[in-house]
Amino acid sequence: MPHANTPRTPYSNESMNALRVLGDELADATVNTLFERGEVGKFNTLMRYFSTVGQDLPDGLPDVAREYLEATSTPPDWVDWDRMEQARLFFIDNNVHISTALSFAAMPACYVVPHVAKLLSATHSLDYPSRRMAETGQFVVHLMQPEAFEAGSRFIPAAQKVRLLHASIRYHLSREDRWDVAGLGTPICQEDLIGGQMMFSIQILDALHRLGIHMSVDGAESYFYAWRVVGAMLGIDLDHAPDGLDSARQFSDLYMTRHMGPSEEGARLTRQLIDLYEEVVPGTLLDPLVAALIRYLVGDTCADWLQVPRTAWDTAVKAAPALLGILERIEDNSPLGAWALDRLGHFTTLFELSSLTRGRVMHYAIPEHLKSAYGVTSTGPRTDRWTPPPPAVPYA
User: Fold this and answer.
1) What's the pTM value of the predicted model, to 2 decimals?
2) Phi (first) and psi of residue 158, to 5 degrees
């Protein structure tokens, strides 16, 4: 199968540096033309009415946008649909846990990379911190629907728009002298795109493992595979991306080692994340649990960099794997229990997403300007339990 399970040269600082100058040729060319012709506003207006697969493209759409949307309207021809279905079942089986890992592990992992935190602060209004989480949660939910790649799906249009959003950020930051290209590389470069893919795939699996969630090897590998497909649709060059969990561990460890550290923007975004979920959780008794979960999942060093407060729950939350293990055993041994927990997980995820979006569908658009305040059902038997690949050997 193309782009899968092929031998790969180990990643190095030199190979990662080469990825820092690469963007997304197709999306970048599309966005550049839209800006040059003054058609961004018209494009955004028309695209609000284009949200499902199979829907006719709006009349009056700029030619370059129409060509891009037609070229990216289908998934890669190498996709293994049996594996994608197994990934969807894995998500159904673990949806609440995945939502927890997204919120309290993957997003803080983004914030602990200073240049990524700086970029997020520059491109998302600090007055509406729920927007980023709502868009992320909605994107994942769209991906894991049975008809994600069929007529009526919202996933492919969302992926097309996110890819253009990334290109527009590259356009602004590169042209407005608000990004140190020489020092930081191309904004949202290939290294950062692949790094993001790792945060939403292997780092999610790591967080599930840390929570004590039972995962089969096939389930974990299929979930990673689904994000590999997503990466291709978001403009990642798969010739450079990890092709399996072992190479994903190597890339993820090297990427984080190269870039992670404290930053004012990272701490600010984390504080907003904590405030947001304390608002979503009913009452105040469980509010400290949010910070405690983040600290448990990302570790004390990263939590301190992000200025995650220490709470009385920091010790208690370490019992989470044991408590979740009880539910996991019920799910493993009782079909009725598995069904009930899956349904509870489904409704909990929908409630969380509804709280974040205030019941609205989030629309992705090309920003015409950036913020000026900143420089920038079961997946099968789980007796064959998945455990994370060991840490990669440190690189020079």
Assistant:
1) 0.82
2) -65, -45
